[in-house]
Automatic annotation (TrEMBL):
Annotated keywords: ATP-binding, Cell membrane, Kinase, Lipid biosynthesis, Lipid metabolism, Magnesium, Membrane, Metal-binding, Nucleotide-binding, Phospholipid biosynthesis, Phospholipid metabolism, Transferase, Transmembrane, Transmembrane helix
Cofactors, names only: Mg(2+)
Gene3D superfamilies: 1.10.287.3610
Localization terms from the record: Cell membrane
Protein name in UniProt: Diacylglycerol kinase
Record note on cofactor: Mn(2+), Zn(2+), Cd(2+) and Co(2+) support activity to lesser extents.
Residues that coordinate or bind a divalent metal cation: 28, 76
Transmembrane domains' residue ranges: 31-50, 56-75, 96-117
GO cellular component: plasma membrane
Catalytic site: 69 (proton acceptor)
């Protein structure tokens, strides 16, 4: 039964969101890899003492990749539920969703390169 009270309803929505994030991180291999990379890059941020602006860009990049990957996973699960056997149009839809993840990952890679290349280059 739906709770129409504002605060209680928002808290329930947050509970579902946290459960969904946990399910993504614990069951989907692509999210597991990207989550680990996000943690590693966060540790690198502390190690290299990046600026507040660099932190903001890094957090946005990590969040973007994880969010788009979550949407990609949802699209794949829905497509597989609706049409479990291979279908050319379902494959096309899944490829497009995966392409969106690729764009997000490339943008995150560019952000990471801009932030960390100068810092790593100073080590050598």
């Amino acid at each position: 039964m739906k709770d129409n009270r504002f605060v209680k309803g928002r808290l329930k929505s947050t509970e579902y969101s946290v459960k969904g994030a946990y399910k993504l991180i614990t069951t989907e291999h692509s999210i597991m890899v990207q989550f680990f990379i996000g943690i590693a890059i966060t540790i690198a941020g502390f190690y290299f003492d990046i600026s507040a602006t660099e932190w903001m860009l890094q957090i946005l990049a990590i969040g973007l990749v994880l969010a788009i990957e979550g949407l990609n996973t949802a699209a794949e699960k829905i497509a597989d539920f609706i049409h479990p056997e291979y279908h050319e149009k379902i494959g096309f839809i899944k490829d497009i969703a995966s392409g969106a993840v690729f764009f997000a990952a490339m943008a995150a890679l560019a952000v990471g390169a801009i932030i960390y290349y100068p810092k790593v280059a100073l080590l050598f």
